[in-house]
Design a protein that fits this description.
about 350 residues; Beta-Lactamase; Helix Hairpins; 5-stranded mixed beta sheet; elongated
């Protein structure tokens, strides 16, 4: 008897886990209806909400019927009903379980009333979770819309600063140069942040454009290394690069791939000790060119290494350096090239980030 009771309890717990862990409101209601019918041996179970979480949609509901019953006369059934209640305690829906051959008002079997109550409570939790997820998703969309508008609007004043800086440099004295260089670096960083915001938004909307053309890998490596050289000198480090065979051609969007390599080099330089060397190398492996950035330094904890390509992820959340979008965008660009990006690292032994890009046919 105890074994049977334990088995029933495990079944109820598993059912509530599936309901609460459902990935959508519709799935949660369907899980609740199916679990109620099968656990209680009923002919039918109906879960319904009095109002839809989204006012523009009809109230959600789910029905589970015994597939072995060819015809079902719902009028002849006797019903066990449990309210589904919201956080305030007010009724927001119901779980109704119908079975034939029992006396009206009497539980289907001993303990079934408690099982129905547990399933109704699980449905209530799942409904609350779905409402919170929907609210969070809407807030994220609104945030991204605002960021996109702000990023676009920032481009005009940045262009004005860039043109003004170029004019100032024409008449600059040696004493002015350090200040103008500082303004230039700040402007470059601001341009990069704005570009990252726009690229991240385009990725989310599926609108990030990658135009593939045959390109020489050597030219891309040289340009990416040259672009990072100034940052390396400012940090007291240096960039070394190995050029591939002259005829190695890849199918690439040149500017976008340089953007990827620049993000890889920038991250490598950021975490490398002063006086160290960051190396950009390219090798040919089968039908791919492998671009690899190797850096000395502390390496990355395995828990962080798995997440470095996530949006806004930072190993140090308190850092205000960048928006945590560089490698997220890099992954999207590489995937647009039908390539792959991966990271190899051990704490205390440095880091290698590699990108595989298909060769041009």
């Amino acid at each position: 008897m105890a074994e049977s009771s334990d088995k029933a309890l495990r079944a109820v717990l598993e059912a509530t886990r599936r309901i609460v862990g459902a990935s959508s409101l519709d799935e949660a209601l369907a899980q609740c209806a199916t679990s109620a019918r099968t656990l209680l041996g009923a002919a039918i179970a109906i879960v319904s909400l009095d109002e839809a979480p989204d006012s523009s949609a009809p109230p959600a509901s789910a029905v589970s019927k015994d597939p072995s019953l060819e015809a079902l006369d719902v009028q002849a059934l006797h019903w066990l009903e449990k309210d589904i209640r919201g956080e305030s305690g007010a009724r927001i829906g119901s779980l109704r379980i119908g079975a034939p051959g029992v006396t009206r008002g009497v539980m289907l079997a001993e303990g079934d009333d408690g099982v129905a109550a547990d399933l109704a409570e699980a449905a209530a939790i799942a409904i609350r979770n779905a409402a919170r997820l929907q609210a969070a998703s809407e807030a994220l969309l609104q945030r991204d819309d605002i960021l996109s508008i702000v990023a676009h609007d920032l481009r005009n004043p940045l262009n004005t600063i860039s043109m003004s800086l170029a004019l100032l440099r024409q008449d600059a004295t040696p004493r002015d140069t350090p200040q103008l260089d500082r303004i230039g670096r700040a402007m470059h960083r601001m341009n990069r942040l704005v570009g990252d915001l726009l690229d991240a938004f385009a990725l989310d909307q599926g609108r990030l454009r990658v135009t593939l053309r045959p390109e020489l890998a050597a030219g891309i490596v040289r340009e990416a290394a040259d672009a990072a050289a100034l940052t390396a000198r400012a940090l007291g480090s240096r960039i070394a690069h190995d050029l591939p065979e002259p005829d190695v051609r890849i199918a690439a969007d040149r500017d976008r791939l340089i953007q990827v390599l620049s993000a890889m080099l920038a991250n490598a330089l950021k975490f490398s000790p002063e006086g160290s060397q960051v190396r950009l190398a390219v090798s040919r492996q089968g039908d791919f060119a492998i671009f690899a950035v190797a850096a000395e330094g502390p390496g990355i904890d395995p828990a962080h290494a798995k997440r470095v390509f996530e949006r806004h992820y930072k190993a140090n959340p308190a850092s205000r350096d960048g928006a945590g979008l560089g490698l997220f965008i890099a992954r999207g660009i590489v995937e647009g090239h039908r390539g792959t990006i991966r990271i190899e690292s051990e704490p205390g032994r440095g880091t290698i980030v590699s990108v595989a890009i298909p060769l041009a046919l």
